[in-house]
Amino acid sequence: MAVQVDEPVPSVLEETGPYDQDLERIEIELLLEGVYRHYGFDFRSYAYASIRRRLWKRIEAEGLATVSALQAVILHQPPMMERLLLDLSINVTAMFRDPTFYQAFRERVVPLLRTYPYIRIWHAGCATGEEVYSMAILLQEEGLYDRSRIYATDINEVVLQKSKEGIFPLDRMQEYTENYIAAGGKRAFSDYYTAKYGGALFNPSLTKNVVFSLHNLVTDRSFAEFNVILCRNVLIYFDKSLQARVHGLFYDSLATFGILVLGSKESLRFSPYEDHYEQINGPEKIFRKVR
Amino acid sequence: MTQFSIAVVGASWGGLAALSELVKGLPRDFPVPMAVVQHRSRHADNLLASLLQDLTPLRVVDVEDKEPIEPGTVYIAPANYHMLVDGGYFSLTTDPLVRFSRPSIDVTFTSAGDAYPGATLGVILTGANDDGSRGLRHIVNRGGKAIVQDPDSAESRTMPAAALQAVPEAQVVPLRDMAAHLVTLTGSKANSARKNAT
Ligand SMILES: C[S@@+](CC[C@H](N)C(=O)[O-])C[C@H]1O[C@@H](n2cnc3c(N)ncnc32)[C@H](O)[C@@H]1O
Question: Which one of A8, A227, B115, B197 has the minimum C-beta count within 10 Å?
C-alpha cells in the first residue's frame, strides 16, 4: 500500500525560503549575463532597482516564483525573450515634453547656434521621435533648419521605424498644441500636420535633414562631432557606472562649447564629468562643455 | 544607532498639511533618511520642497536621478516620475502610471523594502485612494515596520484605512503624535544591531 501523504510536497519552485537579498542579486546578475551571452542584449549595467521591478512583473505574470525560473524560460524560449525586451524598454515620450526646456533652448541656445555655419545635433534615445520633430519645428521657426543636420538614434528598431513615419496619435494633438504654445511656438501648431492614416502625419519637410539610425549607447561608439547632444530620460535607466561611461561618450562627441541636454530630473552632479560643463543659467538641464 | 536605513512616507489628498505637521516635529539630528511620496499634478514644480524646507532644519531635497541617500535629509519624489530606492541612491523612471499614480507610493515602498529588508520604516498618511497599501505590506513582509496615521485624524481616511486593512499589524498613530513616535522608534538605543536580510 502506498504511503499516505498528508502535505503536498512543495515543488522546487514553490519552496524558495525567506527573502535573501544577496541571493536575488546573484540570480538577477546571472540572468542578465545569460541574456547578454545568448541573445546579445546588454542590460547588465541598467539601474538595478528598475530592472528588478520589471523582472518581477514578468515573473508574476508567468506564474513563476524565482528569477532563476524566469532565466530558464528566457534562455530556452526566444518568444519569452521578445516579451522581456518589451518589458525592459520604456519608450514614453511627447512632443514639446517639458515646454520650459524648449523655451529656454530658444532663448539661450539658439543665439549660440546662429554663430555656426553648420549645426550637428544628436538625439540619443529618441524613442518614437516626438522630441526630434519638436526640435525640427523649433529650428525651422528660428531659421536654422536648413543649416542643421539632426541624427536621431535609438536601440529599439520598432520605435525608430515609427520615428521615420512621423505619424502621431491624433488624440494627443490637444496636449501637444498646449505644449507647443507654452514652448514659445510661433505659428499655429496645426500647420505642421495633416490628419491622415488615422493619425497626425507631420510635414515631411521636418525630416528632410534628419538621419534616423540604430545606435546602442552601451556598445556603440561615437560617430561624429556634434554641437548639441540631447539625451533626455534615457540615462535614468542606467546605473551609475554605465552613466559615467555614456557621459564619456557624449563628452568625446561634443565640439568645444557644445551643448548637452539632459532630462528635467537628471543631473551632472553625480557624474565624473561635472567639472567639464557649465549649466546654462536657469533651472533647465542645459549644459555647455567648457573644458 | 538606529535599526532603520530609511523611512518612506506616502501621502495623497490632504498630504501637504499632514507632511508639514510631521516634518515640523522632526529634530535636526533625526537619524534616518526620509523619502516622501506625495501625489500631485504632473506639472507640479518644487513648491512642496520649498514649503517643507521652511519648516525644518533638515535638508529638503527634490530628488534627481541617482541622488545619494543620506541621513539628515528629507527627499521629495518629483512629479511625474516613479522613485525607486536603489542601494544607496534613488533611481527615477518614467514607467507607466501604477494605479493611476506617478509617483506611485507602492513603487517606492516596494523598492525600499527590497533595498533595505528589515530596515525600512513605512508610513502611510492621509489620502483618498488606496495607493501605498501593497507597498506597506511588502515592507512588513521584508521584515520592516509599518506605521499608519489614525484614520480619525486624517483629512481623508481612505488611504490609511486601506493600509490598515492590508497591514493589520501596523501601528496606528494620530497625526499630532507622529513625529514624536518616529523619533522614539528611530532613536531607540535598545536595538543597536542593524537588522539585515533574514
Ligand atoms: C523614455 S524614452 C526617452 C524618449 C525621449 N528622449 C524623451 O525624453 O521624451 C527612453 C529611450 O531610450 C532608449 N534606450 C534604452 N537603452 C538604450 C541604449 N542602450 N542605447 C540607446 N537607446 C536606448 C529606449 O529604447 C527608449 O526609446
Answer: A8
Ranges in chain A, pLDDT < 70:
1-16
Q: How far is CA B122 from CA A136, B73, B116, in A?
A: 46, 16, 11
CATH 3.40.50.180 fits B6-197, yes or no: yes
Q: b/e per residue, B168-177, with b = 16+ CB within 10 A?
A: eebeebebee
Q: What is the pLDDT of residues B123-151, one digit of tens each?
A: 999 999 999 999 999 999 999 999 999 99
**In terms of DSSP H, where are the helices of chain A?**
21-39, 48-61, 67-76, 78-88, 99-104, 110-114, 130-141, 157-165, 173-182, 240-253
Closest CB to A50: pick one of B63, B68, B84: B84
The answer to whether A123 and A215 have CB atoms below 8 angstroms apart is: no
Residues 188-247 of A with CB under 8 A from B: 233, 235-237, 239-240, 243
Any B CB within 8 A of A37 CB: no
3-state secondary structure of A241: helix
Q: How confident is the model at residue A57, as a pLDDT?
A: 94
Mutate to test the interface with A, among B41, B62, B94 (most CBs of A within 10 A): B94
In contact, B25 and B180? CB cutoff 8 Å: yes
**Does residue B3 sit in helix, strand or coil?**
coil
CA B33 distance to own-chain centroid: 10
Cβ <8 Å between B86 and A47: yes
Helix ranges (H only) for chain B are 15-24, 47-53, 105-115, 133-141, 158-166, 175-187
